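Quick one, tokens below. Sequence please?
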């Protein structure tokens, strides 16, 4: 799959398409919001505020999963522009690894959160519009293990995002090349 993602060339040239840029920033905002929400909700006492944050976090999680699957499908079909020509081989390799890791981990994170919540026995309301069906039967031991994995993946994703954002800023501020501009509307 990664070879297909690398080999396809975008018709837009050196810049990502408007749709790819929109999806990138929409998912970025949602993921960046979910990280502190997840940390805060886990530290609150049980009550209406915690319940509301759990509902918001779960709804955003299902939304991110759907958007990531659309984004992945779009990238498989339309490809991505060729790498920024100023990147050396090591930078291209690291960039590719970080991007593929973010795709895989964000999708896995959403699925694990859904599975953990299902095993916990809690309902997942999608912004109050409908209830997402459980994907696992209720099982407290499995739920505990999955929530622990979900938390670890959350911190891993946060670390990758720091690396990703830091690299984009490095390319924009220090190197002054076109890496960041490729994903800016």
């Amino acid at each position: 799959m990664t070879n297909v993602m690398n080999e396809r060339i975008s018709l837009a040239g050196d810049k990502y398409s408007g749709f790819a840029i929109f999806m990138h920033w929409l998912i970025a905002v949602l993921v960046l919001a979910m990280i502190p929400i997840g940390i805060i909700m886990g530290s609150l006492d049980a009550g209406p505020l915690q319940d509301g944050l759990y509902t918001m976090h779960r709804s955003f999680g299902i939304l991110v999963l759907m958007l990531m699957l659309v984004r992945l499908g779009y990238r498989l079909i339309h490809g991505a522009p060729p790498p920024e020509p100023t990147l050396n081989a090591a930078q291209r390799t690291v960039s590719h690894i970080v991007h593929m890791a973010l795709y895989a981990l964000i999708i896995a994170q959403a699925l694990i959160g859904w599975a953990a919540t299902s095993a916990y026995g809690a309902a997942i309301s999608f912004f109050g519009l409908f209830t997402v069906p459980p994907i696992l039967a209720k099982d407290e031991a499995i739920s505990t293990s999955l929530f622990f994995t979900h938390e670890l993946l959350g911190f891993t994703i946060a670390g990758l995002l720091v690396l990703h954002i830091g690299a984009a800023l490095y390319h924009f501020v220090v190197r002054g090349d076109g890496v960041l501009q490729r994903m800016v509307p």
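Residues 1-13 have pLDDT under 50 and may be disordered. The two ends are 27 Å apart (CA to CA).
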